[in-house]
Design brief:
mainly alpha, two-stranded antiparallel sheet, 10 helices, 47% helix, 2% strand
Length: 258
């Protein structure tokens, strides 16, 4: 869902694998793997696309702390810890690939799926497409000529870039056994319509500081059903909680106090 923890260091990752302490966290608007919001992350260490690598690094630090408990001989303990650590990246990549297949409505696995997904992300980055809205719009049926649906194409600065990838995607869907109706339902169950948009959080904070908690309660209500469509969904100017930030609404930094 495009979540960036912001400060995913060792003391903010539980042994259970969950991240904690979401002070400077944020969500992607336009897709950018190098995106950073946290004011204390000047180097981009915890950028969106670096989070898996940071998790590996954190696990290595945990292993270092546990070495005396693994084996009395340090060299043996290191070898055993490294053997376990080597298994993390392949497992993460396999799980991530499966989640991304689900976001694309793929009910089966084919060897070329990884390249298809990477191609989409590259196209989204080049086209400055909104992360959440792109995946939601991908659940819509293609046009009569197999072209991307209009609301999807409109998300890309250059729709021609999308058209090339979309043709590959349609070819892949033709080799998937799921029906279009089942695929759309499945995709809308894993690709949220709304997320806690950074500019909406900012608006809630400002209103609360002014003594008005009603925007907070309204946002909480909307986020309680993030996958559900509303009567106003898709209508320009109406579905404000799903809409990306307008000019002047972009949140550039987040802070531990957020």
């Amino acid at each position: 869902v495009g979540f960036i923890h912001g400060v995913m260091n060792t003391d903010n990752v539980a042994v259970s694998g969950q991240t904690i302490d979401y002070g400077p966290c944020a969500f992607l608007d336009t897709y950018d793997p190098a995106k950073v919001f946290s004011s204390i992350d000047a180097s981009g260490r915890y950028a969106f696309g670096n989070q898996a690598r940071v998790a590996t690094w954190n696990l290595a630090r945990l292993a270092e702390a546990l070495l005396p408990l693994i084996h009395a001989v340090q060299e043996t303990a290191i070898a055993e810890a490294e053997a376990v650590l080597r298994g993390f990246a392949p497992q993460f990549e396999a799980d991530h690939l499966q989640h991304m297949r689900a976001k694309l409505g793929l009910s089966t696995a084919l060897p070329e799926d990884g390249a298809l997904i990477a191609g989409l992300l590259e196209t989204m980055a080049a086209g400055q497409a909104d992360f959440t809205l792109t995946f939601r719009a991908l659940s819509r049926p293609a046009g009569p000529d197999g072209a991307p649906p209009a609301d999807l194409a409109a998300l890309f600065a250059d729709p021609k870039l999308l058209a090339v990838w979309y043709a590959r995607y349609q070819d892949r869907l033709r080799r998937d056994p799921a029906s279009p109706e089942a695929r759309e339902r499945a995709m809308q169950g894993v690709n949220p319509r709304v997320i806690p948009r950074n500019h909406r959080i900012e608006a809630v904070i400002r209103a609360a500081l002014a003594g008005d908690l009603s925007p907070f309660h309204e946002l909480v209500t909307v986020l309680s059903t993030p996958y559900a469509d509303t009567p106003d969904a898709g209508k320009p100017g109406q579905d404000i909680y799903a809409a990306p930030p307008a000019a002047g609404e972009h949140v550039l930094q987040t802070f531990c106090g957020t």
